Amino acid sequence: MGLDPAWRINQSMASTAHAELEITHGTTVVACRYDEGVVIAGDRRATAGNLISHRSMEKVFPADRWSGVAIAGAAGPALEMVKIFQLQLEHYEKVEGRSLSLEGKANQLSQMVRNHLPAAMQGMAVVPLFAGWDRRRDRGRLFAYDVTGGRYEEDDYVASGSGSLHAKTVIKLGHGGTLERDETVALLIRALFTAADEDSATGGPDSMRGIYPIVATISADGYQEVGEPEIVERFADIVGEFSDEETGS
């Protein structure tokens, strides 16, 4: 017995609609420990299929005073997850009169990613990075996640998103032991620059529009966003190096 022609048409329309539904995705985010804390950074480009949907998307946020989260994956669910995460940490502090431990924050975010698994299975995965200053251990710590909510602590550096392979390679080659704050900021900016050069979904510096990656440090002084003038200067140094290589000087 043949299939109902109307059923065939409905299935074809559903498949076409799914193919045309391009979900906005955030791309490359990175984080790295240094001697007095951690640096966390992300590019600004968001893509929908082969199109640039946003050029100035923010992917790095303070979770609270002592921690930060960076998002890669489906932008809508990721931004919602960050807002709820921030609210939960704030609510806990108001109710308990103290902030949640860094380990507890990492576990809370892990549970949120796990609860998002049904959406991830439909192509709307969110894979964040979490970093912060552990006041109990007096050191910076980094955490990576997978779509099932798996939580993995990294010793030195971590990356997520479509350009993560290129960014992580740059960090691996340039890490070489204990780094200071300025060295780490420069290294992550170089990593994002290289990722943008190799991965079309990762946005590089856009001086014409004044769009640059968001970079933040988290230390005993708390979460602090790196000023744009410093980021611009770091990129100028990298571009100068590339220009010298091209000219052979």
CATH superfamily annotation: Aminohydrolase, N-terminal nucleophile (Ntn) domain
Order of SSEs: HEEEEEEEEHHHEEEEHHEEH
Radius of gyration: 20 Å
Summarize model confidence as the mean pLDDT. 88
User: And the CATH topology?
Assistant: Glutamine Phosphoribosylpyrophosphate, subunit 1, domain 1
Number of helices: 7
Strands side by side in the biggest sheet: 12-2-3-13-14
CATH class: Alpha Beta
Q: How many strand elements? A: 14
Can you describe what's shown?
This protein has one domain (25-239): Aminohydrolase, N-terminal nucleophile (Ntn) domain (Glutamine Phosphoribosylpyrophosphate, subunit 1, domain 1). It is 43% helix and 25% strand. The chain has helices spanning 5-20, 75-96, 102-115, 117-120, 164-175, 181-198, 228-247, and strands at residues 25-26, 29-34, 37-42, 46-48, 51-54, 60-64, 67-70, 73-74, 129-134, 139-145, 151-154, 157-160, 214-219, 222-225. It has a five-stranded antiparallel β-sheet with strand order 12-2-3-13-14, covered by helices on one side. A hairpin with a 2-residue loop joins strand 6 and strand 7 (67-70). Helix 5 packs antiparallel against helix 6 (181-198) and helix 6 packs across helix 7 (228-247). It is globular, with a radius of gyration of 20 Å.
Which terms summarize this structure?
single chain, 43% helix, 7 helices, 25% strand, 14 strands, Glutamine Phosphoribosylpyrophosphate, subunit 1, domain 1, 249 residues, alpha+beta
